[in-house]
């Protein structure tokens, strides 16, 4: 409902034409990015468990026609 620093994401287009989204604000203790990821049941994964090459963090962009 409210936009804050946790809502800012960095979008990256990967070599396989999928998009990944990393938090612009948060990093792990080892200075690695925390990515948005969904598990097999569609539930969000914890940021510390996500990696850029993990397929659970890859999203396919869709073109939505204007109304």
Automatic annotation (TrEMBL):
Top-level taxon in the UniProt lineage: Eukaryota
UniProt protein name: Fibroblast growth factor 10
InterPro entries, per database record: Fibroblast_GF_fam (IPR002209), IL1/FGF (IPR008996)
Family annotation (PANTHER family): FIBROBLAST GROWTH FACTOR (PTHR11486)
Alphabetical list of SUPFAM superfamilies matching this protein: Cytokine
One matching Pfam family: FGF
UniProt similarity note: Belongs to the heparin-binding growth factors family.
